Structure formats: structure tokens, C-alpha cells
Amino acid sequence: MPFARISLLKGKPKEYLQALSDKLHQALVETFEVPPDDRFQAIHQHEPEELIFDRHYQGGPRSDDFVLICITAGRLRATPAKQAFYRRLVELLADAPGIRPEDVMVIINTTAPDEWSFAAGQSLVNESAR
To answer: What CA–CA distance (Å, rounded) separates 96 from 114?
Structure first.
């Protein structure tokens, strides 16, 4: 049940954004134990002065095609699963929409099940169990 926030600079066509969304989801399904119908993403496009990033810190060089993907996951994954996800993601994004691996940054945060409510004001944990 991950939620992904995708940040990039403004100006990409909708086909680019769709490919970015699709390939991210494909990588999550293939390597991160995410069901195919579990897809929640928000794409944020920013003006250049609104997305600040170091072009060389821990990698790079980064270009104006830089994309920051923040994933909030509902449970922990083992380090090998995360590493497989990172590798598969940059492989897929290089294929389409054509993002260089140096331009992809990923942050994964994990939350507890009771920190999610998908609908009707109910959490994933039974209220009486707390």
C-alpha cells in the first residue's frame, strides 16, 4: 500500500508523466511486493526555483530531468528488496520516458498500519485492538 509523491520540473508532456507513473508502478509490483491494483501517486511539477537539488551530491551529474520519488510504505521491506526496487526502477525509467539513472532519487519512509485510512474514516487496524 505505498503512496508515491513524484516531484520534477514543469514542462513534460502528459505522455512523459504517464510513462513515469507506469514504470514506477511496474517496478513496485515487480520488486516491492505491491499488488497490481494498489496504485496511489501524486505528481508535482515545479518551477525551477521551487525544486532545489544539488547536481552532484551523492551521484550525478543531475540534469533538469531530475526526478525525486518519495514513497511512503505501510510496512518494512528488507534491504535486498529495496535495492532490487532501486535498480529495476532506474532500468525501467531509462527505457521510458528516458530518464538517466543519475537523475533519479528515491526516498522510502515506512509507517505503521494505523497511520493509514483509505476510506470512511477507518484505519487498517481494528479500533478495538488498540
So the answer is: 36
As for how many domains the chain has, the answer is 1
The answer to pTM > 0.70 is: yes
The answer to whether residue 61 is catalytic is no
Domain that holds residue 90: 3-114
pLDDT tens, residue by residue, 46-59 = 999 999 999 999 99
Q: Is residue 41 part of a domain?
A: yes
Residue 128 lies in a domain: no
The CATH code of the domain that includes 109 is 3.30.429.10
Q: Which residue in the list 2, 13, 61, 101 is annotated as catalytic?
A: 2
